[in-house]
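Action item from last week, closing it out:
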Amino acid sequence: MTTTILIHPGLFNSGEGHWQTLWEADLPGAHRVQQRDWEQPVRSEWVDTLDAAIRNAPGPVVLAAHSLGCATAAWWAVTHGAAPHAAKLKGALLVAPPDVERSDFPAFVTGFTPMPQIRLPFKAVVVASSNDPWCEQPKAKAWAEAWGAHFHDLGPRGHINAESGLGDWGQGRNWLYSLAS
């Protein structure tokens, strides 16, 4: 059975040149989780949409989440991690989790605080940059520890998005594939 790769972008979605968009176009079994509103996210809607994508996937699932997609995955674990279909989620690549608890985090993003600090019921890899403008690396590392995830320091790569110059990001693909095996 083929593993479904669910790609979950963050705020404003992932555009051209973003590694998620390149993976969606190239990886067999890759599908983007389509949120109703990428501009004004509401946690309950985003979590329910992710849950439906996992539930409706034909077999095992790995998640490739970026930014607010990481927070969505953590909240999904809190609200749906014990559901029978949750066992389909074999692992998650959580890239550039944002500090949703910052005082300057966009106020129109609702319901994502505080960031869940539970052990995730699936394998996870957290990747963070040393100069991410949306999260200081020590915080991302602390979340990785709380989540029971492996942590990788990507060095100074900003928010690990299209502007980071990663292109197809082979190293990230390798981490994703390791979660699927």
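Closing note: The radius of gyration is 15 Å.
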